Amino acid sequence: MKQSRQEPCCGVARFLTLLDGPWSTLIVRELLSGPMRFTELKTALNGISAHTLTNRLKQFEVNGIVTRTVFAETPPRVVYQLTPLGEALKDVLEAMRQWGDSVPNYTHCPSS
Amino acid sequence: MKQSRQEPCCGVARFLTLLDGPWSTLIVRELLSGPMRFTELKTALNGISAHTLTNRLKQFEVNGIVTRTVFAETPPRVVYQLTPLGEALKDVLEAMRQWGDSVPNYTHCPSS
Asked: For B48-61, what is the mean pLDDT?
């Protein structure tokens, strides 16, 4: 999106820049249930590559959406957790979920 | 996103599949103000290509998010308008906007 290289001053564009790509939002969806380890996230997000997950988590850390805590165990345990800013995304995901659930006859989802 | 080729039955994943890519959401943002012509949309969305805009509008039409009306004038006038399903995205965009506006010290947006 060329716009992101300019100045996305609208809140919607800011959201789209910080939650870049669908996996970002799905990572937040998982973390809204509580802190998770890398491997737990990778298992929960069927199809995500380790590269993409690492990249998104680093970006989230840089942007203050996620914290990364290393526990000095053997092997070391690394846990990812939403910050208050990340937790505040709950309202956005809830609005997405309500809209998504309201879509009639959506053929990609046979059980709906 | 590999998941979209499977069955994104969660409402969040449905939203992400139907609002594919950041331009999709920004097109909806513009149309929430009222019906618009193709050229008006292209001007409002600084940086979008005609190809991407055409593609997104076609997908929106197929998925019942936008209607396309041709007025038999010379030259013909083509107007895009959100359906009730598309209008219902207002709540999602409002939640995105609120969150985006709450992000502190976001360097991509010097005027905030």
From this structure: 97
